[in-house]
Amino acid sequence: MRIPLLLASLVALSGATRPPNKSCKAHPSNADWPSADDWARLNKALDGRLIKPTPPAAACHPGQPGHDPKRCAEVKKAWETTEFHCGNPVSVLLDQFTNYTCLPDAAYPCTGDGYPAYVINATTARHIKLGVDFARQKNVRLVVKGTGHDYLGRSVAPGALSIWTHNLKDITYHPGKFRLSGSKKEIRGNAITLGAGVQMYEAYAAADKHKQAVVGGHGTTVGIVGYITGAGHSPLGPRYGMAADNVLEMVVVTPGGKIVAVNEDQNRDLFWAMRGGGGSTFGVVVSVTLRTHPTPQVTGAGFIAFTDPKHHTIKDELLAYLSSQVPVLMDKGLSGYVFLSAGMSLPDGTTVPGVPPTFAGAFGTVLVQDAADREAAIMRAFKPLNDTIQERWPGKVNLIVLPKHYNTFWEWHKENHDAGRGGGSTYVASRMLAGDELKGNNTKFMSALKEVFKANERFDIFMVGGKGVANARPRGGSDAVNPAWRKAAVMGMSRVFFPPFNKTAEKDAIKLMNDAFEPMRQLDRRSGSYMNEAFVFEKNWQQSFWGDNYPRLLKIKRAVDPANVLWCQTCVGSEGWAQKQDGQLCRVDGRD
Q1: What value does the mean pLDDT of the chain take?
Q2: Taking a C-beta distance cutoff of 8 angstroms, is the pair 533, 337 a contact?
Q3: What is the mean pLDDT of residues 181-195?
Q4: Is the keyword Oxidoreductase in the record (predicted)?
Q5: Which of 22, 111, 278, 577 is 20 to 30 A from residue 183's alpha carbon, by CA?
Q6: What are the angstrom distances between the C-alpha of 499 and each of 343, 420, 509?
Q7: Where in the sequence of the chain do the CATH 3.30.465.10 domains occur?
């Protein structure tokens, strides 16, 4: 439920009495917070699109607007889905980033303190500009939310003004060529322009209508803009590069309030920075135009290689062997996702014929593009694995491979995408690996893997790098994608979970994640992390997320946003500010 703005303006936020702090952004608790009249004028300029949001789980809490036990039951069920959080103006994927201020459980308190104070439901570039101008002129903290599908908490902030781009859903296909805005240059080839609110499944479906595919991610509800501005890895990456490498143009509202086209001929610094330099930093994206590619025919396969986790020696040998075969499979044209485990259980209620409830080994989903012999290509790729398994561990290890052919990439994605989960408390960490760490004698990798297993029973390997990423030719000659990607074959990722309302458990989880993942970092100190799936407490995050690109990114940030209109944790230029415990965003040095 959303409270109409004019009603909301009669309540609490206008009653702040704390004197303003000039070194901080305006906050609802301070006297410099915009007045009810200021917000009403903004709402009028926005044609009534300013929202005073209620907490997403308010239906579960007596005394909250919209309390409704029937609706609460629906919210509880939906809370674990990504769709719920993507479709709500303020809700985000992970609970810790709102400081648990309103969970769908009446046993816990519920307030709106962890969420933005106001939201602009933007459907045009003008709406975004009005929000950016208001935040800049009134010194209000500004955040941008597309889907809230974020592991670093960048799309939510307490007491902020949020621009919600979720409903910018326009899609335009450009057959044969695309003319750059403000330029006579035409880029040959097919392209598609996507509004900032378009999600992965919508982009795939739109391209598929024209027998095309876009370089996109595995999560079906992920927003296209946050994904691309963070670089965007893809199972199509080994062929076509990162998603950011396929950008032809963006339309952006700058922190100064200008609506500009960003491409290789105009605003070139922004064009470079916003392809891999991170979202909510250099401007607010209105739309992005991507090169499309003829959709490949896809032969996919789910597979599992498993043993009893009680067979400790076999388990360790099997994990070493399977990890060493990941780059071998990639050399045979496979991409996809592999999950290693020293001992994990199938989800409650799930059974797989021939697979025990608890197992050690690897499972995953892989694909090969445009293979003439379809399923036979997959089975041929896995045959050496099966032969070795049967020779080394007869009767102790089993391999199951289930291939299936799809006529288009979109058909494959619909059946094999990562549905993901919403809610809960999780931190993740990632590292790009060149592949050499996995091949042959991978003793160091196995040592690092054992440490990672202390944080989580599963380690994810994304087969998304390789030649297509290394040899990509982005428009304008280069982009801000982390240079570590150009040398990477795969990305490894782990995560750690912890309960809500338990600061000790959270602190322990942070330390565990940092310590357990350190040996993985040590495999190649020159490598880095994927900023969209990274540890929010990563040490030396500037180097880890952007490598040698960071100094240039920081220079561009300071040039386009000298007033720090846009800020998010571990984003370019964020070092000078910090969020206090009460939610205020303040300069670290205390200067005005």
Answers
A1: 95
A2: no
A3: 97
A4: yes
A5: 278
A6: 22, 19, 10
A7: 171-294
Kindly report, as residue ranges, where domains of CATH 3.30.70 are found in the chain.
Answer: 297-332+339-407
pLDDT of residue 20: 74
- Measured distance CA(489)–CA(471) in Å, rounded: 12
pLDDT in tens, 472-514: 999 999 999 999 999 999 999 999 999 999 999 999 999 999 9
493 closest CA partner among 524, 456, 466: 456
Among 17-31, 113-127, 495-509, the least confident range:
17-31
Q: SS3 sequence, 396-459?
A: CCEEEEEEEEECCHHHHHHHHCECCCCCCCEEEEEEEECCCCCCCCCHHHHHHHHHHCCCCCEE
Q: Is the pLDDT of residue 317 over 80?
A: yes
Instruction: Kindly state the greatest CA–CA separation across the chain.
Output: 77
Who wins on pLDDT, 379 or 65?
379
**DSSP H or E run through 131:** helix 125-138
The architecture in CATH of the region 171-294 reads 2-Layer Sandwich (3.30)
CATH number, domain 2-164, options 3.40.50.10320, 3.20.20.120, 3.30.43.10, 3.40.50.1820: 3.30.43.10
Q: Which residues contact 581 (CB under 8 A, 6 or more apart)?
A: none
CATH of domain 297-332+339-407: 3.30.70
Secondary structure class of 61 (helix, strand, coil): coil
Specify the pLDDT at position 351. 75
Query: CA 451, CA 455: separation in Å to the nearest integer?
Result: 8
Structure tokens at 562: 């000298």
| Tokens linked to 225 | 């803009």
CA distance 433 to 465: 9
**Cα dist from 443 to 298, 429, 463, whole Å:** 34, 21, 20
Please, are residues 258 and 176 in contact by the beta-carbon 8 Å criterion? no
Residues 209-224 as b or e (16 or more Cβ within 10 Å = b) = eeebbbbbbbbbbbbb
d(CA 232, CA 188): 23
DSSP states of 366-387 as a string?
Answer: EEEES-TTTHHHHHHHHHHHHH
Identity of residue 291: R
Please state, in angstroms and as integers, the Cα–Cα distance from residue 156 to each residue in 15, 50, 159, following that order: 23, 16, 9
In this predicted structure, what is the pLDDT of residue 115?
Answer: 98
Q: How far apart are CA 237 and CA 91, in angstroms?
A: 30
Cα 118 to Cα 98: distance, rounded to the nearest angstrom: 15
Enter the pTM of the model. 0.94
